[in-house]
Amino acid sequence: MEPLNARSMLDAATSAAAKSADQPFVERRRRLSPAALDVVNQKVARAYSPIVITGFVRLADFALLSLVGIALYLGYVMPRAGFFSWAYPAQIIAVAISAVVCFQAADIYQVQLFRGQLRQMTRMISSWSFVFLLFIGASFFAKFGSEMSRLWLAAFYILGLAALVSERLVLRSLVRAWAREGRLDRRTIIVGSDRNGEQLVEALNAQEDSDIHVLGVFDDRNDSRALDTCAGARKLGKVDDIVEFARRTRVDLVLFALPISAETRILEMLKKLWVLPVDIRLSAHTNKLRFRPRSYSYLGEVPTLDVFEAPITDWDLVMKWLFDRVVGGLALLAALPVMGLVALAVKLDSPGPVLFRQKRFGFNNERIDVYKFRSMYHDQADPTASKVVTKNDARVTRVGRFIRKTSLDELPQLFNVVFSGNLSLVGPRPHAVQGKLQSRLFDEAVDGYFARHRVKPGITGWAQINGWRGEIDNEEKIQKRVEFDLYYIENWSVLFDLVILLKTPISLLTKNENAY
């Protein structure tokens, strides 16, 4: 089953009810049950990706073996030969690559295996020995054996093995420490607290070395079919509570224990949950209808069907982090002279601070402080953005009109990218917490609006370079922004980020008719 398309969910949704414009702003938070609050109030560490961990271990194995071999060559073989030869380094790198491939074939690049010792060491020693036997055999048939130092070869085998064993002992300590801190757990909630849910929790808990940590179950039913506990997992609330729950504590996976035949119920629930940056799957452990094995993804031995996948995870997240820090740092250095001139102009134009701080929506609806150059008179500033800036707005200063039109007021957000890390260079633009379309908050005007917060917001984005920036005075403008943001999330790549970044200056010059 292919993951559902986010835009189709948005198009199928209906507009929410209106809210009076003269009401004072109040942070809207759904009240959770005491059981859910017990979980929410627990301190939770940030998760580490097993895929990234195993990737770094592969790189460490390659680098370690290469360094050992080359150090032995430079310290022993080259002084005796009296000259440098590329043949040894080439063979060393070939051995290191072969070792990593052989370790992969032996299936030792698993986080669960890193926690243990005996199985990991025996497989690694066997694989390393096999690589050396293969290397010796290849050297013999290629007639390189007479040119190879036997002492170097023996030392490379022994010291290489010692380095690998030492590395694995350190890794074992790290992985066990991360496991104790909960960084390797997949924090999971179950939807459905009936007998199917109980069987699912039992199946997940019965698996050895599982990274699944069941936080609890959610169910809308209040009749006898809904259990208060499922195999020890407490009922934490109703399905409507999941969104608030997942925004107040780390949730990695939502797993439906409902049968596929409950299609209507599942779709209604997915319309509420698809806005979360988590994996959503349907459990297939009790379904009589069976698909091909490749149709399933497995949690240990429990078959599941993918519905939604969390966007930008694992190595994609690493690449985006590097892109933001490296390119953002260079952009900040290049922009410093311009920022200095803008700061001076703002200070000379009107009294008050140079910078303006505003609460905006960040990743997964967290509230973040976003910095801009002040573009309004200080005594008329609007930190909650309760009133939209319009054309010829009297609150905007002379310098403010220019820097808003050219987006120079956004330059201080580079500090958010490089130092705070709560913004990206490219992503959905962070809207003010109380941003409104006429009398309605944005999430009330567009159902599914919060789905754009499944990734970190950005200084520029796909919607902005396509002209959807500035004043929002009708429903189409906010609808289009959300549609373009969802397209960006579904099609993200580093190249896409680079294209958006390069097109931003052109967009600022040609598509600024809505920026006041």
List keywords for this structure.
two-stranded antiparallel sheet, 516 residues, 14 strands, Rossmann fold, single chain, alpha/beta, 17 helices
What does this structure look like?
With 516 residues, the protein is an alpha/beta fold. It has 3 domains: 31-47 and 185-310, NAD(P)-binding Rossmann-like Domain (Rossmann fold); 50-181, no CATH class; 315-510, no CATH class. Helices cover 48% and strands 12% of the residues. It contains 17 helices and 14 strands. The chain has helices at 6-12, 34-40, 50-81, 87-105, 111-115, 118-141, 150-181, 195-205, 242-248, 263-273, 314-349, 398-405, 413-420, 442-445, 462-465, 475-490, 494-510, and strands spanning 186-191, 212-218, 229-230, 233-237, 253-256, 279-283, 297-299, 302-308, 355-361, 367-373, 424-426, 436-437, 440-441, 458-460. The strands form 4 sheets. An 8-stranded mixed β-sheet has the order 3-4-2-1-5-6-8-7. Strands 9-10 form a two-stranded antiparallel ribbon. It has a two-stranded parallel ribbon with strand order 11-14. Helix 4 (87-105) packs across helix 6, helix 6 packs antiparallel against helix 7 (150-181) and helix 11 (314-349) packs antiparallel against helix 12. The two termini are 46 Å apart. The model is unreliable at 9-26 (pLDDT under 50).
In short:
With 516 residues, this protein is of the alpha/beta class.
Q: Beta-strand percentage? A: 5-15%
Query: How many separate structural domains?
Result: 3
Low-confidence blocks of residues: 9-26
Q: Between the first and last Cα atoms, what is the distance in angstroms?
A: 46 Å
Largest sheet, if any?
A: 8 strands, mixed
Helix content: 40-55%
Mean pLDDT: 84
The number of helical elements comes to 17
Which strand order do you get reading across the main beta sheet? 3-4-2-1-5-6-8-7
Structural class, from helix and strand content?
alpha/beta
Q: Indicate the overall shape.
A: flat
Q: Count all strands and give the number.
A: 14
Radius of gyration using CA atoms only: 28 Å
